[in-house]
Amino acid sequence: MSRTVRKAAIVFMTTLGCFACALSHELSTQSLRLLLEQEQHSSTSLQPWAELCIPVATMLGCLLSWIPLHFLGRRSTLELLSAPSLILGCCLTFTFYHLTTPTEPPIPHIQYSFLLGLCLQGLSYGLTFVASPIYILETIDEFSLSLLLITTQLSVALGVTVASTFTIENSTYFYHLVPAACQIVCLVGYYFLPESPRWLLLRKLRVDDAKTALRLLKEYSTADYDVCKELADFQKDDERFKSGVHSAVLYLHPLLIAVGLSCLWQLYGLYVYHFYAAWAFKFAGMSDSWSSKANVTNACVRTASITVSVVVFFFCRRSLPHCVLLMFSSGLATVALTVTGTCFYGFSQGDTWSTSVSWLPVTVHLVFECAFWFGPGSQAYIIAILMTPVPLRPTVSSIAGSLHWLGGIVGLRLVRPMINTLYPFGTFWFFAGMSTIGLICIVCLVIPELNKTELSAVKKTQILFLKGRAVSEGEESNVTAN
Hints:
The chain has 482 residues and is mostly helical. It has two domains: 1-205, Growth Hormone, Chain: A, CATH 1.20.1250.20; 259-475, MFS general substrate transporter like domains (Growth Hormone, Chain: A). Helices cover 82% and strands 0% of the residues. The protein contains 22 helices and no strands. The chain has helices at residues 3-37, 47-50, 53-63, 66-71, 74-99, 108-139, 145-165, 177-191, 197-202, 207-217, 223-239, 245-264, 270-275, 277-283, 288-292, 294-315, 319-349, 352-356, 360-374, 376-386, 393-413, 415-481. It is globular. It starts with a helix and ends with a helix. Mean pLDDT is 81; it is low at 40-45 and 461-482.
């Protein structure tokens, strides 16, 4: 197997794993919602906490992911924990639907096995959420934004789109086997992929295995010298963060930036927009079929926006256009929040202009979806990983990922109380103010760090180029002398 094929296999397997996790996450959420809506299938003792089992399990998967990443390895975490957990969870969910009927209440033990299956799927999603980008960056490219957008964000968006299009019903419970089948393919494929050479050297001190993994993944002009030099660079990076007060400061700075970027996703009021999505389509005069499928439209817009961002950042790899587009998309989302709040304020005051432009809420809604998923929605967590020093990525990513999901749980639970307290226009204006704070943070904190990351990547590329040129000149001089 050539190096190009091996790297393509890594990208494909991680992309397929993220797609399967996102698909199972959405299908499980639909199944749980369907179960709680049917009174004969739900128990009143389960309802207060059953809705939180999936996001809480995902948050715990992110929080605990640094343990297997440290002791098992990057690829082994996906192979031995994430894939089996998702397969088992999907099979338990399928078994629950297969053993129950819509007209009879399920046996309590079977119902608890259903919740266990949902928790296992959420745990797998959290592990994949953290482990996949780290495995990609340590085996293929340390600074590839477009590659991470494909393997994590675009695959998740495709999973959400498929799950929103083909929804779970009592007659389509076999859909739960589709993510399991995808993860079975990943489980077989992971066996033939190499482990992260950085982890092999720094955590298990398996120098020969690390050299073998590097030779399988990268092409060197002189095998022994370049491999040993890169292994020595791994050790130098790791020793900077092992002890001392200076290492604590180096650890705290990327942690705060990563946590801030992970929470930035929650400052744009996405759940409030989704809460009013069906109303916006219906207010524009569209049919009930359109308004009932507002989540499908949102998922399609999300997929299209992330696809455009992948294409743009694949060709524009400099930090300047990246920063400009990130600021523009964030500012456009803030403007959309402000305009939507103004529309709702006009509705509350009985203004005639607000009712004459019935197309405005749904138009602003689509503009917000495009701007959010092109910019902060798809890039915040990836930028947090890229700006974190390589030795700190497993720990920082697990903390930032868990806080990201914790913010999602809190934000989703606070939507209705905020609307009842601040009214719809006040809620949208509140998130417009919060997104303005997020935009200021992007300008003051994120953009300088992006420039530093690009500078370090350029320096590393230049060093590798000059080193390869010196080696080739040395080989040519040796041939001439001989």
